[in-house]
């Protein structure tokens, strides 16, 4: 397209050939190639002619035919470019807002918001999430084979479920892992490690730990913890791009941000409620205190890291032991002697050490 170029420094007016591309126009003048971005063009309408200027060249300007400019697609390109710029600006604002949201979630928002969010999470979503967790966890926490012991644990879970106010199936199972641990997953799965079973001296003790976990499920503490730690990832996902999982990965990588443990008040609530669930079944709630005492003693030893969930209480274990002892009521044992024997035999395969698991996660 023909145009005349005034460099803004001299009175000269040079004929130039202007090429318009998607985001820019270019022309040669005095052996120099000028490239102007369309988005930054200033356009002065002179009737059938246009005067274009660009911040790059100060008072320099191009004068060209308005009809030719439109035909060249310059106008359309300009509009598209400006829309693009606007989108970018919106994205920048969006990122800034998301950044603030992330900060709020981390420092103020999510811990406070996680309770209502957990209660508002549809149970079927929580269940689906739980199944994903379970699949991933089964690498490190391998379910022990079906056995009379597993059956007894599952039946006990159903008794707790019947007393609990929960939409979830409370599915209790023994898993194999080189650590003392019991934990609940979203959606009602409760895992007890073989080491924890071995640490329990009586059926009442094991029943108390499982009831405590069932209470976490019922009160939706599990989902709350998930919201607290994954909330940040969900926000990041919303920014980075829906469903890409990039945000989740960022959070998992920044593992220190995530903290799946429960608050002290959630632990105390689960203690109280766990004992109620036992009592509602006519079972003894006296096993909690001695087990906490044992955990506290163990927590001071070499295996402190291994008693993690239960230890999220520590150094509260002794206080919790005292409080649960004060609330405890006598009742029937949760398991018959035959069931108790079967439970203690539930995971009899040779143990894999943590080192073996890390080296060969799926291996048998
Ligand atoms: Zn707990």
What can you see in these coordinates?
This protein is of the alpha+beta class and 364 residues long. It has two domains: 2-76, Roll (PH-domain like), CATH 2.30.29; 121-359, no CATH class. 53% of the residues lie in helices and 15% in strands. The chain contains 14 helices and twelve strands. Helix 10 runs antiparallel to helix 12 (317-327). The protein starts with a strand and ends in a 5-residue tail after the last helix. 37% of the residues are buried. Mean pLDDT is 79; it is low at 238-242, 250-259 and 301-308. The structure holds zinc ion. Keywords: Hydrolase, Membrane, Metal-binding, Metalloprotease, Protease, Transmembrane, Transmembrane helix, Zinc. It comes from Phenylobacterium ferrooxidans. Belongs to the peptidase M48 family.
Keywords:
364 residues; alpha+beta; PH-domain like; 5-stranded antiparallel beta sheet; 4-stranded mixed beta sheet; 12 strands; 53% helix; binds zinc ion
What is the compact description of this entry?
Helices cover 53% and strands 15% of the residues. The chain has 364 residues and is of the alpha+beta class.
Which stretches are low in confidence, meaning pLDDT under 50 for 5 or more residues running?
238-242, 250-259, 301-308
Average pLDDT for all residues: 79
The helix fraction, in percent, is 40-55%
Small-molecule binders: zinc ion
Q: Count of DSSP E strands?
A: 12
- Report strand %: 5-15%
The class by helix and strand makeup works out as alpha+beta
Domain count: the total is 2
Apparent shape: rod-shaped
* N to C succession of SSEs: EEEEEEEEHHHEHEEEHHHHHHHHHH
Please tally the helical runs, counting DSSP H or I stretches of 4 or more residues. Answer: 14
Rg computed from alpha carbons, rounded to a whole number of angstroms: 33 Å
The major beta sheet can be summarized as: 5 strands, antiparallel
Strand order of the largest sheet: 2-1-8-7-6
Cα distance, first to last residue?
A: 74 Å
